[in-house]
Specification:
- The structure is a single chain.
- This protein is mainly alpha-helical.
- The protein has a single domain, classed as Heme oxygenase-like (Heme Oxygenase, Chain A), CATH 1.20.910.10.
- Helix 5 runs antiparallel to helix 6, helix 8 packs antiparallel against helix 9 and helix 8 runs antiparallel to helix 10.
- The radius of gyration is 18 Å and the shape is globular.
- The N terminus is likely disordered.
Length: about 230
């Protein structure tokens, strides 16, 4: 009976939940990376944090047109008009996010002009550009959008959970992505992804899963870059 119940629960869960279980080691690697754990336990080298801050500022500026492209795909390809509203909400928040990075950079004395873009960051941004092409299916693009946001939410929320020793000066960063409102937004995106994939042909589902894995790999590499600087 227990085996039958487990199978039924697996069948009733969404595609993304099954992916996370299937690729749990990589997912944990992206959401519980040593960079994140060093924030949580208070041991982070602030030079690593500053490196992340400047490189993520560059990334967010590239992430914005990507989200805009997802919005365009939603307007043309989605079977639910509410998708546009969800994506638009995320796009609108990126203006505030860029301002947040500028404010934090000023606080930490991190210059944002003439930044040398790290090769890892360049690689991630090229990946985003590839997803902006018109031939990329909406289900694939929205999968990437959800995965990118979910990794940050899960990572920084961990730094706020019970037992953390996150420093007061980094709590602002953690609350930006670790708060419950952003968690709810990520769940909204995940619901969209699951709905799209339930109706998608097998080849699109396969592409979306590869994209999900690519996001996790890029996130691990981005944390590696921030943590070690190589």
């Amino acid at each position: 009976m227990e085996g039958k119940k487990a199978r039924e629960e697996g069948e009733n869960s969404g595609v993304t939940e099954r992916w996370i279980k299937r690729h749990l080691v990589l997912y944990i690697g992206a959401t519980r990376h040593p960079f994140i754990l060093s924030i949580r336990d208070g041991s982070i080298d602030l030079s690593s944090f500053k490196r992340w801050l400047e490189q993520d500022y560059i990334f967010v500026r590239q992430f914005t047109p990507f989200v805009a492209s997802v919005l365009i795909k939603a307007s043309k390809k989605s079977d639910d008009e509410n998708d546009m509203e969800v994506v638009l909400g995320g796009l609108a928040s990126l203006d505030e996010e860029i301002d947040w990075f500028k404010s934090e950079a000023s606080k930490w004395d991190v210059p944002l002009s003439n930044i040398a873009v790290h090769k890892t960051n360049q690689k991630y941004c090229r990946f985003l550009e590839s997803l902006m092409l018109p031939e990329v299916e909406y289900a694939v693009a929205i999968t990437a959008y959800w995965a990118i946001e979910a990794v940050y939410q899960q990572s920084f929320a961990h730094c706020l959970e019970d037992g953390n020793r996150t420093s007061l000066e980094l709590e602002n960063t953690c609350r930006r992505w670790g708060n419950e409102a952003f968690a709810e937004y990520c769940r909204s995106l995940q619901t969209i992804v699951n709905r799209c994939l339930e109706k998608a042909p097998e080849d699109v589902i396969a592409k979306a899963e590869v994209t999900f894995l690519s996001v996790l790999e890029h996130e691990v590499e981005f944390w590696n870059m921030s943590h070690g600087g190589t």
